[in-house]
């Protein structure tokens, strides 16, 4: 992870065991991660992520799904690139399609203004893309 960021276990009420927050303090931004084991419910998790991304439709100028596939590392997913004055500009999930499902939601801790946030969003989007591109599954059990 970049030196200007930190990952912490999600300690909020209702947080599950493998949930965490990737904080960017200088930018007042966070990627909230939630992890789930897949138990014949991958379609449900994918649809939940899609629904959460498209909840921003009312404020979004556009929502562009970007498909990620890395056959070698068995990492697949979709990143929803959400344009406009929205609360969350990036929503995504990664999965191996059999055991693991990781959802991420990016938020700035401020009132959304696409013009003033654009430089920071562009910079942090590169970090998110790099994380997705280099992501690998590791069994914790």
Shape: globular
Strand order of the largest sheet: 1-2-3-7-6-5-4
What structural class is derived from the secondary structure elements?
alpha+beta
**Uncertain spans:** none
Mean of all residue-level pLDDT scores: 92
CA-atom Rg in angstroms: 15 Å
Task: Label the CATH architecture.
Answer: 3-Layer(aba) Sandwich
Distance between the termini: 23 Å
Q: Write down the CATH topology.
A: Protein Transport Mog1p, Chain A
What kind of sheet is the major sheet? Answer: 7 strands, antiparallel
Query: Would you list the SSEs in sequence order as H and E?
Result: EEEHEEEEH
Please estimate the helix content. Answer: 10-25%
Number of helices: 2
Q: Which CATH class?
A: Alpha Beta
How many domains? The number is 1
- How many beta-strand elements? 7
What would you say this structure looks like, in words?
There is one protein chain. With 141 residues, the chain is an alpha+beta fold. The protein has one domain (6-134): Protein Transport Mog1p, Chain A (3-Layer(aba) Sandwich). The chain is built from two helices and seven strands. The chain has helices spanning 42-54, 114-134, and strands spanning 6-9, 20-24, 29-37, 60-70, 75-84, 90-95, 100-108. A seven-stranded antiparallel sheet has the order 1-2-3-7-6-5-4, sandwiched between helices. β6 and β7 (100-108) form a beta hairpin. The two termini are 23 Å apart. 22% of the residues are buried. The mean pLDDT is 92.
